Amino acid sequence: MSEINLPGDVDTVVKTAKTYARDLAERTLATAVVAAGGVAVAAGPAAMFHASFWETMAAAGIAAAGTLLKGMLARAFGSKNSASLAKGV
Q1: Looking only at Cα atoms, what is the longest distance across the chain?
Q2: Residue 18: per-residue pLDDT
Q3: Helices (H), ranges, 1-89
Q4: Is residue 46 a contact partner of residue 54, using CB atoms and an 8 Å limit?
Q5: pTM above 0.85, yes or no
Q6: 32 by DSSP, 3-state: which?
Q7: Which residues, at least 6 apart from 86, have a Cβ–Cβ distance to it below 8 Å?
Q8: Which 3 state secondary structure label does DSSP give 7?
Q9: Is 64 exposed, middle or buried (0-12, 13-18, 19+ CB in 10 A)?
Q10: Higher per-residue pLDDT: 57 or 11
Q11: Using CB atoms within 10 A of its CB, is residue 2 exposed (0-12), middle (13-18) or buried (19+)?
Q12: Mean pLDDT score of the chain, rounded to an integer?
């Protein structure tokens, strides 16, 4: 039977996953808030663009979903404890 070698002890692996999850959650929530604010500001003064509350939330959700997918890809190809695609960030 072969042994499974993890890249560190259990505490290190758990801390890395926890750091990554916190980073990804923060980035996703921040994107949703900024996108909702951007749509709300654009809908106010621009006569050509009127968005309801639900349209604003949908736009924010789409932006947040994109951030979530990007962060998941970053975990696969970048640093294991960051949702950034840049190495070492």
Answers
A1: 69
A2: 84
A3: 10-43, 53-77
A4: no
A5: no
A6: helix
A7: 78
A8: coil
A9: buried
A10: 57
A11: exposed
A12: 77
